[in-house]
Amino acid sequence: AKSPSIVRLMLYPNPLQKLIWIYFGTSMAVMVFQGSNILLFQLLGISVQMTSWIISYSGLLAVISSFWIRWLISSKQSEQQMVESSMAVVSVTLLLTGLVLASDTNEWRIAGILVAHIPLILGSRALKTTLLGLVTHMTPASLTGTSIGLLNSIESLCRALAPLIGGTLMEMSLPSAPAVVGGAMAAVLLLWVRLWPPSYVVKSSLDHP
After folding, report:
1. d(Cα 142, Cα 162) in Å, to the nearest integer?
2. CA-based nearest residue to 65, from 100, 99, 97, 30
3. pLDDT of residue 209
4. Which residue has the higher pLDDT, 70 or 100?
5. Residue 203's closest CA among 152, 136, 154?
6. Residue 74: its pLDDT value, please?
7. Distance (Å, whole) CA 79 – CA 197
8. Residue 203 near residue 12 (C-beta atoms within 8 A)
9. Alpha-carbon gap, residue 57 to 142, rounded angstroms
C-alpha cells in the first residue's frame, strides 16, 4: 500500500530519510522568505505594478536557472558537493538578505530583495534537481512513484504553510525575520549534512521495512 510506504520513508530509518528531510527543510526555508514577500512589499509601500514586475522577474530567473542547472549537472561535481554548495548558497543568501532588510532605507531593502532572488533561485533549483535525481536513483522501482509523490506533496505543504509562518514572523518581529529564520534553518541543515552526510545505497535495501 502506498500510505505505509510513505510513513516508512518519512519516519523509519532508511537511506532516503535524510534526503527527504533535507528537501522539506530547505523548501520551507526558501518559501518562508518568498511566501512573505507580498506582505513585505505591502509593508514597504511598494506599488501593485512594481510588485507585479518583481514577481515576473522571479519567474524569469526561474526559467534562466534551468540552463545554469544543466551546466552544473554536466560538470564534474559529485552529488554531495552539489547538495552542500547549493545549501550554502541558500543559507548565506537568506542571512545576508535579512541583514539588508533590517536597514531603515526602503531602496536598500528593495535592491536587496531583487539581488537576493538571483542566488536564491539558482541555489534552491540546483538543490531540488539534485535531490530529485538522488531519490529517483536510490529508490527501487516499486517505490519510485511513492517517493516522487512524497516530495511533490512536501513542496505543496511548504507552499501552503510558508506564507502563514512568514507573516507570523513579520508580525511578531521585524520584516527581516523570515529571511533570517530561513537562513538559520538552511545553515542548521547544512551542518547536519556535513557532520552526517547522506549515504548511497543499493536500491534493494529499501524494498523491505
Report:
1. 32
2. 30
3. 42
4. 100
5. 136
6. 63
7. 11
8. no
9. 40
- The grid coordinates listed for 102 are 533590517
Give percent of the chain above pLDDT 90.
18
Task: Tell me which amino acid residue 104 is.
Answer: D
Distance CA 116, CA 111 (A): 8
- 181/166 Cα distance (integer angstroms): 9
3-state helix, strand, coil split of the chain in percent (to 5) is 85, 0, 15
CA 84 to chain centre: 13
The residue behind cell 550554502 is: 88
DSSP code at position 206: G
Q: Where are the alpha helices (DSSP H) in the chain?
A: 2-11, 17-35, 37-44, 48-74, 79-101, 106-138, 144-172, 177-195
pLDDT of residue 94: 94
